[in-house]
Amino acid sequence: MNKVMQHTEADKCIESIRKIDFSTLGISEYNCQYIERLMPNLDYYFQIYAQSIKLLLKNKKPEGYIVDFGGGHGFLSLYLQQLGFQVIYCDSNPLSVNTIQRIGLILGQGPDIVIEGSSAELLAYCHQHNVVVDYLIATDLIEHVYDLNSFFADLQGVNPALQMIFTTRANPCNPLKLNKLRKMMTDVEANFFFPMREEYIGKNYANLKSDVIMELARRTRGRTYIDVNKAVDDYINTGNFPNEIERFNTCDPQSGNWVERILSLNEYRKVVEGNGFRVEFLKGFYNTNRRNPLLSFAVKFINCLIRYSGALGRVGAPYIILRVKPY
């Protein structure tokens, strides 16, 4: 795809987005605040979108159906549509769906198809309407998916020849990033998710002793309430406590949303290949748009080191990219 065209369309999108007064759209306060935090670095995020599209297309013309999965605010959808794709926006959060719909009304453009749901709803829609999807992009999404096996099985059902790009800041190769994420997950688990599971088990299995409830709550980290029920029922029937997962990863037991889950490259490869696709791991880059020219130069130098240092560059990369293709 022509780089000049890509930059021109990105500039158009950015200009249109910057003109919107999001506080007047009637969207949720959370989504409004989230967008406000993005705005100072909007150019950087569009550079990530452009990188993803380039890796996906490999100089092919942007056409056919593409999914903006976990689309959130929908900025990627707007960009993809400007480039010439038929865009399917898919997000399980109704507040996010409302956001892109209201943005679409203001701009007079938006995704061709909007799906509120996850991979199962995407699969059902495509089968029901005979839609053949060629591409999928998901930024900062894969680390939050509760069941990756089911997720990729659904995508295999959407199209066995589907080509996909996933970006994730939960880079398992970057030690500084790992330490930061592990501290965050430890805090969230201790202050929110463990108490939620403990309260849930206590209410639904009141006959269990308090120390058993606490141990079950500890060992069911990373499970939804449905799977917590299965684990507790199994304990009652067999007397065996459930096995624990890796000691940092944790998820919201109500929604199943993982907190920046850290998986090794081998774990990702096993899941992807087990569902009929192959995966290549690529490296992201830092934002070079800095007020201080010296800092901007330093970041550009770091990006060069990351880019040209092979697999070792993953150690310093701010995010990694999974390029998933059919065999």
- β content, as a range? 5-15%
Note the total helix count.
Answer: 12
Q: Examine the secondary-structure arrangement and name the CATH architecture of the largest domain.
A: 3-Layer(aba) Sandwich
- Helix- and strand-based class? alpha/beta
CATH superfamily of the largest domain: Vaccinia Virus protein VP39
Biggest beta sheet attributes: 7 strands, mixed
Could you tell me the mean pLDDT?
96
Oligomer designation: single chain
Total number of beta strands:
7
Binned, the helix content reads: 40-55%
Low-confidence stretches: none
Could you name the CATH class of the largest domain? Alpha Beta
Examine the coordinates and then state which fold CATH places here, giving the name of the CATH topology of the largest domain: Rossmann fold
Q: Give the spatial strand order of the biggest sheet.
A: 3-2-1-4-5-7-6
> What count of domains describes the coordinates?
2
Radius of gyration over alpha carbons? Answer: 21 Å
Explained architecture:
The chain is globular and about 65 Å long. Strand 1 (65-69), helix 4 and strand 2 (86-91) form a beta-alpha-beta unit. Helix 1 packs antiparallel against helix 3 and helix 1 packs across helix 4. It is of the alpha/beta class and 327 residues long. The longest helix is centred in the middle third of the chain and has 30 residues, at 175-204. It has 2 domains: 3-172 and 263-326, 3-Layer(aba) Sandwich (Rossmann fold); 175-238, no CATH class. It is built from 12 helices and 7 strands.
